[in-house]
Here is the input.
Amino acid sequence: MSLIHSDGCPVIDDNSNQDLLNLDGANPEQGRGRVPRDYNATPFGSLPFAKPVATKPIPRSEWKERIQEMTAKKLILSDMARRGGVQTKNQGQTNFCWAFAPTLCVEIARVQAGEKYVDLSPAAIACPVNDFRNVGNWANKAIAYYAKFGGVPSSMWPQIAIDRRYDNDKTQAVREQHRVKDWIDLPRNSFDHLMSELLRLRAVAIGLDAWGHEVTACDPVILKDGRFAARIWNSWAESWGQRGMSILAEDYITRGFDQIAVLHSTAL
Amino acid sequence: MRYWLLFLILFAGCIQQVAPAPGPDPVTPVDPPAPVVTDGKLRVLILYEEDNIPNLPVSQMQAIRGPEVREWLTSHKADWRIWDQHIDTQFADKFWQDAVKMPHDSLPWIWVTGGTNGKGASGPLPKTSVEVIDLLGRYSK
Here is the structure.
């Protein structure tokens, strides 16, 4: 089955568009790499650079009306980000999705703040965290590196380059400008918190158990059948889904996920 | 006598131009806005507190986070920032470093400067995108 949303975006749930997930690895150019967060070692609220969300979620009874209003008024975060210059990323064969999704969150937050778009390199985060091995990890490792050291523009460190030559004095010197010290920790499996952040026009990096993949949730969606869903921006190039995006239904997301978002970025 | 009449007409026109708009708009025009801008480019800062976003009226939250105000600013070639009050500005232009330190009584706050009529505004952020854009329109070309 292949559900398509009214705007043409493919909808993924347990029965629809499963081929887009590439779970069989038919397309080797679509790496994943998300390792689930170890909540025993790092319980909710224990991350040093991500304060636990303190606000109550927006009541579910308000979602439909708010989404309809946002759609009517074209309050679409992903559209706004694109118009601000944010581009779809492509992690290729790397297992660095856990660095790609938070990086996209940073880029979106900066464009929202009125700052110039800087294409940041997820590899510049994932490589030093992973000692330059192409292996999976979890997003919290990426945000800790963003908070301690900062990122590097893709113009100085290509997005998927696993190469120690890029870890040099020049790239070290710019990291401080791209530090992101303040993140928000959101409760595991709380779709209500996810939707609340999306309704407040904040992008959220979500790590999905069923997919083994980390993506960036951008927009709240209500499907034709009344189910709630989230539009996600993947790191599998523009050719995937609808210009790099698809819609994940609540029942698919809530098979298990963790989530984290940018509180505010460093100004440029 | 004729000159006095002409003066009175012009004076009345000026008063009308700088007077705050009637109604609920709480933003007070300031003259001159500081930091002083001399290049005629509209500059706008909206400052807010992230922790308070959930407590704002939805329409005001959408003005802060949504595309309407941003796209107006971009289409009018304004230089603008919409920041949480705790943003780290050490790498920002000195202009914005100074702007973010300007006194304000409450948040969210809007500060406008550099419009072609030489005026600016500083005060509480209006409650809707339409009202924010209306305010900005008074200072743009």
